[in-house]
Amino acid sequence: MSHHCTETLSSHLDPFRWVPEDLQASTWPTVNTPAIPPAIKLLLMAPEDIRVAELLEYCPTHPPPPSLPSNTGAVHTSHLPPTDPSTYPSFIWELDHRHYTIPTESNLLLANDGLASLVHPAAPDVRFPAWAAIPWRAMSEVWNARDIWIKGLTFCQSNAPLSERRELRRYARVNWGEVAAMNSELLARCQRILGDNMLNDESLNDCADFWNSCLEREGRAVVVAHTGFAPSVMKPNASQRVLRTTLHKLGNSAKGKIIIPWHLPLLRHWVTVRVDLDDRTFVIVDSLRSPDNPDPRVLTGVHTLVAAIDQYLSQPDGIKPWAHNQIAIAAPRQFDGVSCGPITFNTIQRMLYVDRRIWTAERASSIRMEVMDGCVKCWQMPIDAMKVHKLIPDEAQSSPEKHTISVSPDSLAKSGPKDGQGMCNPELERRIDVPLGVTKGMAAFRQMTASSASPRPVAQAMTTLRQFPSHPAAPGMSFNHSGMAALRRPSQTPPGSAHTTPMAGPSSVASGMAAFRQLAILDVQPSTAGKPQPS
């Protein structure tokens, strides 16, 4: 449970903060309510749109004292009223509360229908109002999310030579920086990937979405199917609809490849299947079996699939029969019960890009890091990259079902505004074990910040300023995180007032505007920074 700055992403960058130095607690309302007062919420709660690059640099404005009375225990209720707000220790609002038990809202009601006050083990002589439980729980989520992203960086660093680790830090800052750090769905995926767990459908489907976006931009006749593809084609009523969606991406022709993550539910095991339409062959890669002895259920399913493809494409009688290619790609062997998912991920990578190395037990952690990277990139993609409602050409519209191509429900969530507006670059680095050079890293950064549709100029300005700390036009330039935090907050001036009063303490709008003026002076604007530099 670290509350200090020793784990920030890069020590030369200023720490990211949102809580002001002077909380002016003596001016806080003294009412005991279950809802946090709006003015206090603006002071204490993390920005809703906080990004990974910011959260990795987070360092509390008010860290706990070394002599903290307790770093674990239960928060108790009291029938006595809260003490005066001036007695509240500032560190309590940024403390990692994951090791404390915080009472639920229903437990705060007293017998006389009043509200209990709260006694925290870290400040046992103070009674807090009931609303204090809200920022405490929120800070638990902040620290948990930060730990997950730091663990991702640790995976990067532990699987790379010392000479490459600095560039891996840059890689994460560039390619993950604009992702919503507090996205609960993405955090759940990353936590599962980085643990000793099996990969689930959502993680592989995220990677499939990202690969397909790149393949389409590259103009390659290859489709990576979602995990629901194989079960669907086994159903007579669904197979034609599913095939229509997939084969349309290949131009409704007998050319191209379909790569399928194939799941065996009874074994809880992933297998990789590739169907080559050009030469009418299929490949089965199973990390528990040899290539010449595939699982009978998979083999039967593949024969059903290719027969359905022939029927959909109206292949003539007497055409060359489908053949099982047993030597097309090497099959790694797993020796545990959880590596089949990462092996399937790696096998699909090797089917798409010939420079990928085969999975080995020594590289298992590195491959999981690449799965996490694929998920993060997927959640960066804008809506148009997801092809949510892509029209089918007129000549193919013979039934009402053919007007749209459906995508998984997760795809709609991924492309929502809460998950950032990062650009999906088909040439974006596909490797984590070979990190970015400085030039390529900056090119990727410029591509990511070039989106004119991004609603987050504050975060983009902050990220840009971080990337150019030593610009010759501004020797000694420094960036004020608290100013940017102030810009995020709504004005506290009453509606209709012509006068705007900056927030108390160092978190002022003026600080944020000063940062923007520095940005304009440096001429580091998204519109001019969007052109990739030659590598």
What would CATH call the architecture of the largest domain?
3-Layer(aba) Sandwich
Give the averaged pLDDT, no decimals. Answer: 73
- The strand count comes to 10
Measured on Cα atoms, how large is the radius of gyration? 27 Å
Largest sheet: 5 strands, mixed
CATH T-level fold name of the largest domain: Adenoviral Proteinase, Chain
Total helical elements: 18
What number of domains?
3
Beta content comes to 5-15%
What ranges have pLDDT less than 50 throughout 5 or more consecutive residues? 6-12, 383-412, 415-535
Q: What overall geometry do the principal axes of the alpha carbons give?
A: elongated
Biggest sheet, spatial arrangement of strands: 6-7-8-9-10
Q: How would you explain this protein's 3D organization?
A:
By secondary structure, the protein is α/β, with parallel strands linked by helices. The protein has three domains: 5-145, no CATH class; 179-419, Adenoviral Proteinase, Chain (3-Layer(aba) Sandwich), CATH 3.40.395; 438-529, no CATH class. Helix content is 38%, strand content 8%. The chain has 18 helices and ten strands. The protein has helices spanning 38-44, 52-56, 133-158, 165-176, 184-194, 201-218, 229-233, 236-248, 296-312, 340-352, 364-380, 383-386, 409-414, 438-449, 457-467, 481-488, 509-522, 526-529; strands at residues 73-74, 76-78, 100-101, 117-120, 123-128, 222-224, 257-264, 269-276, 281-285, 323-324. The strands form three sheets. It has a five-stranded mixed β-sheet, with helices on both faces. Strands 2-4-5 form a three-stranded antiparallel β-sheet, with no helix packed on it. Strands 1-3 form a two-stranded parallel sheet. Strand 4 and strand 5 (123-128) form a beta hairpin. The longest helix has 26 residues, at 133-158. It is elongated. The two termini are 41 Å apart.
